[in-house]
Design brief:
The protein is of the alpha/beta class. About 50% of the residues lie in helices and about 15% in strands. α7 links the parallel β4 and β5. It is globular. The relative contact order is 0.18. The model has no long low-confidence stretch (mean pLDDT about 100).
Length: about 200
């Protein structure tokens, strides 16, 4: 069993869907698609996660690309409140984290996310009280699966790569971690049972 358990956030600890916040403001399918494409699937969103752009500049760019003033205002409302609606704690995960902590492990978060989440991570994460360290990409100006994010993560917490087991929902992020010397596995489903299975396999390996 590795000393340190490193976990991604989206679709590992919480489910995430950009549609949820948009549906709080409209049920028009064309507007929902437009907001997803203009904002959530944009280059600006990636730059926010990498810590390379301000929220103000990103919002200005999105609103300029919207098809009408109404959609632009919708975009603004969605951006101001996405963190309140787009993430939902996965049932059963907090209990698993408690068990891992009781077994003597240290728990760390390694997630691509913007500065918006830095002050509110305790509200967002299930079992937040069990974490020993939080590493959001924007605060360190890098993103998974870049080599440098794993290097900065290990250095920031003074960890040895060989002592870490990383769980992420994306294959490329696990491949990047393994290149940096961490062990890890891809979580196939955002469910506590799938997380428990991976942890059991890791301990029995």
């Amino acid at each position: 069993m590795h000393k340190n358990l490193v976990l991604d956030m989206g679709n590992v600890l919480v489910t995430y869907d950009p549609v949820w916040v948009i549906q709080e403001y409209t049920d028009r399918e064309d507007w929902i698609k437009e907001i997803k494409d203009v904002m959530f699937y944009s280059g600006e969103w990636i730059r926010l996660d990498a810590g390379l752009m301000s929220e103000e500049d990103a919002l200005k760019a999105w609103m300029k690309r919207c098809s009408s003033p109404q959609v632009a205002e919708l975009c603004k409302s969605c951006f101001e409140n996405w963190d309140k609606f787009n993430m939902k704690k996965i049932p059963g995960v907090a209990e698993i984290l408690k068990e891992e902590k009781e077994q003597g492990r240290k728990l760390y978060l390694l997630s691509n996310a913007s500065m918006r989440l830095v002050p509110i991570w305790r509200e967002v994460l299930p079992g937040s009280e069990y974490f020993d360290g939080i590493f959001y990409s924007a605060a360190f100006y890098c993103m998974k699966p870049q080599d440098i994010i794993y290097e900065r993560f290990l250095k920031h917490f003074s960890l040895e790569a060989k002592d870490c087991f990383f769980i992420d929902d994306l294959t490329e992020n696990i491949e990047g971690a393994k290149k940096a010397g961490l062990d890890g596995a891809v979580l196939p489903l955002p469910e506590a049972s799938a997380l428990r299975k991976i942890l059991e396999e890791e301990k029995n390996a």
